Amino acid sequence: MKPMLPMERYFGKLELVYSFYEAMPTGVTVSETGRIFICFPKWGDVVKFTVAEIVEGQLQPYPSYETNLFDPGNITMSFISVQSVVADGRGTLWVLDTAAPNFSEPIKGGAKLVAIDLKSNTIKKVYNFSENVVLPTTYLNDVRIDFRVGKAGYAYITDSSSKGPGAIIVLDLENGNSFRRLNGAISTSPDPYFIPKVEGQMLMNRNKDGSTSPFRLASDSLAISPDGKIVYFSPLTSRHLFSISTESLRDKTISDLDLSYHVGYLGEKGASDGMITDAEGTVYTGDYENNSIRKLSPNGIMETIAHDPRILWPDTFSIGPDRYLYVIVNQLHRQPRFHYGKDLRQKPYCLLRIKIGNFPAPTFS
User: Fold this and answer.
1) Would residue 102 count as lying in a domain?
2) Measured between alpha carbons, how far is 81 from 40 in angstroms, rounded to an integer?
3) Would 226 disulfide with which of 54, 78, 82, 361, CB 3.0-4.6 Å?
4) C-alpha–C-alpha distance, residues 208 and 225, integer Å
5) Beta carbons within 10 angstroms of residue 173's beta carbon
């Protein structure tokens, strides 16, 4: 009889919430009443609707099927390719439309942040971006909202471009004015010395014609402190975690060059896609290289709370009123563009959750 050899230890009590058998999801958010919303960017899969709600175990287009049909004649009120959905805890769902299907140049006038009233399930406001904010290379990725500053609050959005400068976009929700910060800074740029390794293999662009190139994506992960004073951020192809005060981000009298001196470096946290904070100030982050979920406590201690072979690329996080941490697991690294055109993904993609015992960071006082 052959001896049983030691094996890697897995841990963390993960629960399956939903299985996706069609298009690949990226974003999830759980509202203050427990409603769950999902988004599906148009990256090559057949996407019937780019925003959905899970209702009685079924995906329903949200806020309507018509809104999810791209209408070139009504580009402001129709979704093109949504990357992120975020419920703000006080009755609004924020929808971030990249307007860049298949990572194309954003369709002119299509990139937008849309506010949907969760009681009436109708669009109440749309924020568009000027051409000097959403560049031809821009890929809008994640968004965080804070209502404690300004007359109507502010939104912070990451540009995770693979071809141009990364940045954090600051949006005044009162007047719709927006501007780029840390444009092309080291903290928002891919780590040039970092090569992702997932499932034991180097992750890089591998094209059908046999050509290869490094996989590079700029600022992606984004979280905001419970008091709204600090944002945490990280490029997708990097293991480094950065922070900066939201006050300095909003202060346009600080030049972008000088703004870099306001950035704090918090060390390595693993390579992550999604990130979020709870009401106690703990930062939760994925580690897609190690099939893990980590947390960084306010005292600076980092701990792995889940390490599981099912965590095949932890993407977006959300914290629900049930004090669970929700995470989309979507096998992003198995997409055809990384494997000479061969799709290695195995359905279903998953929405998982793990009990953390804390509420989400509030967006208002």
Assistant:
1) no
2) 7
3) 361
4) 43
5) 22
Question: Do 227 and 245 contact (CB within 8 A), yes or no?
Answer: no
Task: Give how far Cα 281 sits from Cα of 159, 170, 222, 225, 265, Å.
Answer: 24, 22, 14, 6, 17
Torsion of CA 338, 139, 144, 182, to 10 degrees: 110
Main-chain phi, psi angles of 353, to 5 degrees: -145, 155
Residue 2 has pLDDT above 90, yes or no: no
Please confirm whether the linkage preceding 235 is cis (ω < 30° from 0): no
| Contact assessment for residue 123 and residue 115, using Cβ atoms and an 8 Å cutoff | yes
State both tokens at 4: 């049983």
Q: Model confidence over 42-79: pLDDT tens digits?
A: 999 999 999 999 999 999 999 999 999 999 999 999 99
User: Beta partners for 234?
Assistant: 221
CATH number of the domain where residue 237 is located: 2.120.10.30
Total domains in the chain come to 1
Cis peptide bond upstream of 6, omega within 30: no
In a domain, 294, yes or no: yes
DSSP codes of every residue in 39-105? E---SSS--S-SEEEEETTEEEESS-TTTTS--GGGTTSS-S-EEEEEE-SSSEEEEEE---GGG-S
Confidence of residue 216 (pLDDT cuts 50, 70, 90): very high
Q: Is residue 303 part of a domain?
A: yes
The mean per-residue pLDDT over the stretch 259-270 comes to: 97
Query: What residues are paired with 264 via a beta bridge?
Result: 243
Measured from the Cβ of residue 1, the count of other Cβ atoms closer than 10 Å reads: 3
Domain that holds residue 342: 189-359
Q: How far apart are CA 114 and CA 126, in angstroms?
A: 5
Going by their DSSP bridges, the two strands 230-235 and 302-307 should be labelled as unpaired
Write the burial class of residue 29 (CB in 10 Å: 0-12 exposed, 13-18 middle, 19+ buried): buried
Identify the residue whose tokens are 């992702």.
196
Is 61 within the bounds of a domain?
Answer: no
Q: Quick one: pLDDT at residue 196?
A: 98
